Amino acid sequence: MTIYYTLTFFLLAAEMGTFCIILAPLPFMMRKRMLTFLSTNFVVAKIAYGLKISFIFIAILFIDAIQRMWRIVAEGEASKKDGSPVHDVRTETNLAARKFYAQRNTYLTGFCLFLSLLLTRTFYILLDHLHTQEEYAKLKKQMATSSKEKIANGDGAGAAGGNDVVALKKRVAELEAKERDFETLKKQSRQQAEEYDRLARELNKSTGGSVDKKY
């Protein structure tokens, strides 16, 4: 296998390992740190840029491998249609080997390109999911805080309302006390007037005169 197909194989193996690590059931904080590091690190960004350029060359190799495979298959079909017997076993073996290598290179480059697209899409889906979880946690925290504030404000309002009720009850009690005092004063005044009338009548009887009642 040539050096560029060897590098393609190692790149495919690295993609498979990265894919398994990303999809592993990691804790939330560990996954968050890993995805944040991969999405914000400067060195990782440079490596990703180099990989994008390498995938362009892998795409060219993929097209070339497909063309070679079709060419070899066409040669085999043409030899069968001609009906010419195979004069050398090595020729048939060489044709089968060329076909095998062409298919191998096609699958190798094709799976490398396919897994790169799948890995990129999965990475961004997980990153969006992480951001969604963070926003949900913030929203949940804000709702809990606002609920606590509402409860606190409600308790304060209840306390203020309770103070107002106590003050009103106290005011009503004072008014009732004043009303009772006024009724007592009226009763005392009436009793005093009656006593004055009685004394006046007795004085009139004793003196035989009349006394003006002023009250």
Walkthrough of the structure:
- With 215 residues, the protein is mainly alpha-helical.
- The protein has one domain.
- The chain has four helices and no strands.
- It is rod-shaped.
- 6% of the residues are buried.
- It is a multi-pass membrane protein.
- Keywords: Coiled coil, Endoplasmic reticulum, ER-Golgi transport, Membrane, Protein transport, Receptor, Transmembrane, Transmembrane helix, Transport.
How do the helices and strands line up, and which of them pair or pack?
Elements: H1 3-23, H2 28-40, H3 42-82, H4 89-207
Helix pairs in contact: 1-4, 3-4
- Helical stretch count? 4
Helix content: over 70%
Q: Uncertain runs with pLDDT below 50, 5 residues or more?
A: 155-159, 211-215
Count the beta strands: 0
SSE sequence, one letter per element: HHHH
Summarize it.
The chain is mainly α and 215 residues long. The protein is built from four helices and no strands.
Q: Which features would summarize this protein structure in a list?
A:
disordered C terminus; 215 residues; rod-shaped; mainly alpha
